[in-house]
Design brief:
about 140 residues; alpha+beta; Cytidine Deaminase, domain 2; five-stranded mixed beta sheet; 4 helices; globular; binds tetrahydrodeoxyuridine
Length: about 140
């Protein structure tokens, strides 16, 4: 398997792919639209959006939607994820941060010191953190 490089071009690609699917976000209740694009070590990129349910607890976040799709396709090692989102889809208001549950699910499929979480307002305006920075002292698969 070829080594995947997460350079500026790849980060831009991930952000662009997330922005591309943002209109598919289904968030009639919160009106907070989120989209994600997740890069796996196969080189495959999976997108996801938040999908809300009338039974609010059944809602799934964009990040987990992307990761679970990857797992269904046979990918297991998450290298990076780009996240965009905001009220009424206004992504330039905020660097959308993954919720705690999504951070935990990332932990299940990533190297916490290597994996990058990219929160973007646009392809030119983003911040990035390792998963370890976003979820310190975490509980992971190696504990079980
Ligand atoms: N949401 C995500 O999709 N990802 C996050 O990490 C933050 C929250 C969604 C869930 C819900 O549909 C809406 O944003 C408001 O919480």
């Amino acid at each position: 398997m070829s080594k995947i490089v997460i350079d500026e071009k790849m980060k831009r690609t991930l952000i662009e792919k997330a922005i591309e699917v943002l209109p598919n976000s289904f968030a009639p209740y919160s009106k907070y639209n989120v989209a994600a694009a997740a890069l796996f070590d196969s080189g495959n990129i999976y997108t996801g959006v938040n999908v809300e349910s009338a039974s609010l607890g059944a809602t799934i976040c964009a990040e987990r939607n992307a990761i679970f799709h990857a797992v269904a396709e046979g990918d297991r090692k998450l290298l990076a994820i780009a996240v965009v989102g905001g009220r009424d889809g206004d992504i330039d208001d905020v660097y959308c941060a993954p919720c705690g549950i999504c951070r935990q699910v990332m932990r299940d499929f990533a190297d916490k010191d290597e994996m990058l979480v990219i929160s973007a307002k646009s392809p030119d305006d983003y911040i990035e953190h390792t998963l370890e920075e976003m979820l310190p002292m975490s509980f992971g698969p190696e504990a079980l």
